[in-house]
Amino acid sequence: MAKKNLEEIAYVSIVKLILENHFKPGDFLLETTLSKVLSLSRTPVRHALGQLVAEGFLDKKKKKGCFIPAASPDDARHVFFARENIEGLTATSAARCATDKDVDFLWGLIKEEQSIDRDLSKIDYVNINGAFHMGIAKIGKNKYLEQYCRHSFWRSHAYILFFDNYYTGNIAAGIQKTGPQQHIQIVKAIENRNDEKAGNLMRQHVRTTYDLLSLKL
């Protein structure tokens, strides 16, 4: 099997283990242990962990390895403040640059998102949600905003995966209930090329996510 495929398998498998609550904030994810659990060599596991560190989902300590950052109200506030402003800019830029094909792509993601219910894998929702936010950043055609957006998005998920009701079992009150409707409004603003409205709606969306989480931190 190709090296890249093994790295992708390792990446998806590690995220899946986190989603299934095999790890919690503060836990170290050891290469040797993960290699045995996933029946993979250490090289693809090491590269997958490195990608998760680069994306902000994991932190790393010299000589100790990669770990899930411990929950901190101050850190959460800083992460979501950065994400709110960065993604506000990516949505503004997307509304200015989007083609009809780009808009169709976003509506396709909305359709996928609406099909998700409690019977489907939570990793499916993570993937679609990530594709939505990263898709908007890519449509904006600003490589710097796209890079910062990716980092702040995944760093915020170190909180979302452990504190949002969707991932902890109480879906009725979780972010997954409000997120799709807000996504629809954002896409409508992008489709109408209303850059100011798209930016404001995205900032509101990220702020709503933080407000729901901050009650539990």
What does this structure look like?
This protein is mostly helical and 217 residues long. The chain folds into 2 domains: 3-67, Arc Repressor Mutant, subunit A (Orthogonal Bundle); 73-214, GntR ligand-binding domain-like (Four Helix Bundle (Hemerythrin (Met), subunit A), Up-down Bundle), CATH 1.20.120.530. The protein has 10 helices and 3 strands. The chain has a 3-stranded antiparallel sheet. The longest helix has 25 residues, at 73-97. The termini are far apart.
Short description:
The chain has 217 residues and is mainly α.
Helix-strand layout with pairing:
Blueprint: H1 3-19, E1 28-29, H2 31-38, H3 42-54, E2 59-61, E3 65-67, H4 73-97, H5 100-114, H6 122-139, H7 143-163, H8 165-168, H9 175-191, H10 195-214
Antiparallel strand pairs: 1-3, 2-3
Please give a handful of descriptors for the protein shown:
217 residues, mainly alpha, Arc Repressor Mutant, subunit A, Four Helix Bundle (Hemerythrin (Met), subunit A), 2 domains, 10 helices, 4% strand
How many domain regions? 2
CATH architecture of the largest domain: Up-down Bundle
- CATH homologous superfamily descriptor of the largest domain: GntR ligand-binding domain-like
Could you give a short account of the major beta sheet?
Answer: 3 strands, antiparallel
Termini gap: 42 Å
Low-confidence stretches: none
- Averaged pLDDT: 87
Across the major sheet, the strand order is 1-3-2
Number of helices: 10
